[in-house]
Amino acid sequence: MDDAVRFGVVGLGTQGTLYARLVSQGRAPALRLAAVCGSNPASRATDRHSALAAELGVPLFTDYTALLESGEVDAVVITTPHYEHPAFAIEALRRGVHTLLEKPAGVYTLQVERMLAAGAEHPDATLAMMFNQRANPLYSDLKRAIDSGLFGELRHSSWIITSWWRPDAYYASSPWRATWGGEGGGVLVNQAPHQLDLWQWLCGAPERVFARAQFGFRRDIPVEDEVNAVVDFGHGATGHFMTGTNDLVGTDRLELLFDRGKVLVEGSSRITTWLLNDDERTIARTMSPEDAAKAPSGALDLSTFWSSDSRDYASRWGEQHAAVLQNFGEHVLDGTPLLASGLDGLAQVKLANAMHLSAWTGRDVDLAHLDATQYLAELNSRIAAEGRYPTRE
Fold first, then answer.
1. Got the DSSP string for 245-282?
2. Same domain, 245 and 378
3. What is the domain range of residue 361?
4. Residues 42-80: pLDDT tens digits?
5. Alpha helices by DSSP H, 97-192
6. What are phi and psi of 21, to 5 degrees?
7. What is the pTM of this model?
């Protein structure tokens, strides 16, 4: 481990294969690919997994425990189905194997909390999240600007993220997809976790949430395919989050309103900022009666009160994922601060759970006092109604 962390990839679907190739190609030099772990021997994908392992020159394991106890790896990334994430992480942490989790950290809060408790019992083993959008230079630059106080205090935020349209064939591609028992939910669990994480990373964790969701709105599925949520960040700041999988054109638009400026992010690749000459309230209070009379009609040029700037960001495919992999390896080697920890994974799952619970019950949900037991009971009632998967504990 003096030069690189011996790294195993668990789960060889699209994401796991990407991570194995990125590490093998040297795009995360703090890691060295040492093994991969795929499906059991009876799986139809075994031949593909064997071919991948041979191509990359590493052993293929079909038993996860055998990989952890082989002595071949110091760390793993887990890219298995959502419900398995916490249990797989716990097995790794108990053996002192550093763990990077694909999003989400789990499906429901109780299982993620159990995972964090296991991590606390084994503090020498790292638990990190693959929230790769935190490595997007646009968002990392924006985070630094917000934290510096450049824009002042947050007043409102709105994120419309509908740029992941899915056709019927997508949902029919696997029997577990878009089910409560197999996947754990719809857009909040599958597509939107990165934005739920980024939103809190930039704005802080909401205190309360009220949500309305459509279940099987435009597709023949039992889970949510459209969600509108209103949140209270505290200190007078509010927010709106809208997501869905039915918008063929799609929108990715984040607005952040502060008392000294405004930020607009479009497509997660273009950012426009407006920096006010003074606090907005000061501008309003000190404006002359003559200028104030011109404002409603548009006769007053309000642009004299701010300076604006726009910038486009480009990101090569896999670049953000490679950055998180490298950060994870550097943390294991020398303690470099993590881009995203297991606690960040819990925050994302908790917000998604709160949106579900609010939509199911029709009431506000207090994030600090989220009833995780009630959430699991509501989830299990839906799993039982499907009649295809066992309920969860």
1. S--SS--EEEEEEETTEEEEEETTTEEEEEEESS-HHH
2. yes
3. 135-314+348-386
4. 566 678 899 999 999 999 999 999 999 999 999 999 999
5. 109-121, 137-147, 168-172
6. -70, -40
7. 0.95
